[in-house]
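Protein record

Derive tokens from sequence
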Amino acid sequence: MKKELNIGIIGAGGFAAFASKAFLQIPGIKISAVTDINKSIAEKMAKELNAEVYVDLDSFLKNIKIDLIYIATPPFLHYQQSKKALLAGKHVICEKPAALKTSEAEELQTLARSLDLLYVVNLMQRYNPLYDIVKTIVKEKMMGNFLHGFFENYASDENLNVNHWFWDRLKSGGIFIEHGVHFFDMFSGWLGEGKVLSAVQMQRRGIKKELTDRVQATVLYPDGIVNFYHGFDQPTILDRQEIRLQFEKGEITLYEWVPVKMKLHGLFENEQVKKLHKLINGFSITHHTDNSANKKVKGRFTDILFDDHITIEYGNISEKQNRYRQILTAMMQDQWSWIKDHTHIRVIDDNNAVESLRIAETATSLAQKF
């Protein structure tokens, strides 16, 4: 069995530099080659990683040392670059989204399977320990049935000038496709398959070109609805994100777009509190009831019996960069395990790439413009 995985990077921007350091935390991982249309930044990254540098993509793909291609370019390039890499016999991990169209993602999925190659999009949210905690609470109905949720993304546009590719829908696909896929995938993992009911896109006023900077979609899941809001209109110092899941017996709130802090508030039985202690290591807890309090309430025409009314807080906002690095490392380790042994069941696979894009593309097509 091959003990090394040689990676070639397409796109030598800041995120690729960050990701490469996370990948190199895994013994046996090596960055063999880097390519970018900007020769100077490709040379800079290659020097730091002791890798070969290429300007021509076709020559890069002929490098027989490369086992896996990591693609970190703007979205409009993902489909063609992934396809070329697969046809060159390379495994592929691509940054989100898979493509600008679901049909293109499906084509890549089919191609990779026919060639027995790995193809996956870096929807790394499911590798976050907080993701697993929420998934367990939902699955075991520790807070009752799910009712409603939201994701609110008040993101910065401070480094996105008016001519940046992010604003060009032909290059980015728009906010739902470029950014929303992460969160459509996350909520589908928690709640099951979602169906977009409605969507809105808001145009920025006072500039000469058409530019969408805020979008919102309402998605129906088997047990409830979720509102997704993305706004790219804040200074960096005010950039923040919040996720909320409301249940029959309380709610879970997560903070930051890569969640690093969590708050649970609700009504729990003693056995459930014991489970939470096993599930979450090192949280703070506030008790809102005393031993003499009535432990029976009503909700949704049903009696709710509980032993404790509590708030649990866990995690720290300052851990954001470390958490981000950890989940990138976990993602790469998971995918390499599949390359070595196809019986390995991955956390994310090519289905995540396709289905997250399907929801995003539907939201984009349904969005009313204002």
